[in-house]
Amino acid sequence: MAEEKTIVRRDADFMSLEDIKARAHALKEMVGNLLVKDQDFGVIPGTGSKPTLLQPGAQKIDTRFRLACRTKDIIEKELPAAHREYRIVVEMIHIPTGDVWGEGVGICSTMESKYRYREDKREEDTGQPVPKEYWDTPKESRTKEVRERILGPHGFIKKGPDGWTIIRREGTGEKVENPDIADTYNTVFKMCFKRAHVCGTINATAASDFFTQDVEDFTGTSTRDDVVLDAKIVDETTPEGLRKEAITLATMLSDAKLISDEEYEEMVKTARARKSVDTLQKVIARIREIKREREDKAVASGEMVY
Prior knowledge:
Elements: H1 17-33, E1 41-42, E2 52-53, H2 55-65, E3 67-78, E4 84-94, E5 100-109, H3 113-116, E6 117-119, E7 122-129, H4 132-136, H5 144-151, E8 155-160, E9 163-170, E10 175-177, H6 185-205, H7 239-255, H8 261-273, H9 277-301
Antiparallel strand pairs: 1-2, 3-4, 4-5, 6-10, 7-9, 8-9
Helix pairs in contact: 2-6, 7-8, 7-9
């Protein structure tokens, strides 16, 4: 079979219907056969049913259409208290012809809550290695009482250059202003470019039929009570099946070191206590939301505390 090519006539004032159909077909083919859910795109709880295009998906679409993302303009705005806002405009260039297929705009600021605030917690690394008893205890059995018996009051574990050690963590848990806001400048700049890139890819390829803009960045504004699970995230099955999925997701978060043992214990306890499909779907939605929040927080702060 001859290799399929998308051809755009450059000597016309507008694209032919055949050209438009060819682009639409190529994109539809990618969405159905190549792009991976929760890796290249995903449905974000509380944002509607249309999937959000993620940066890995945008990069794959760029490769398919032979597009290059070129920075057109960067505007840096200084804000009070050492905060910053970035605005980036990109052009999506068709590599074979050099034509500009579209533009994208991204804005990101250190005033966004994920960068502006930090959780009030005080940590002390004791330097003591994690006892063997801790590792020998099954994860689901590491209750708060068991953990404190093995690690001591307010004891948690943290991986450092010399291996796993015991840390003491205390604090109110409330949000406080980030005292090291300059540490987030690079992350905020990269996030701004990512938003511009995804926007540019959607505009250049007319992908808005399939995807929305990069709303994944705003899920941190939703609360435990207002998260609504989209029907596409989890198929309605039995409570037993949903309960198993919730516990599996919690275990994945724990294994990825995105939640503490105490949080894992609470997630499992909550999942086991819920009886209906509706409440279990909300539990799963909340776990997915926590996953995104923790991933963003890890990127912004560079911390890996368990």
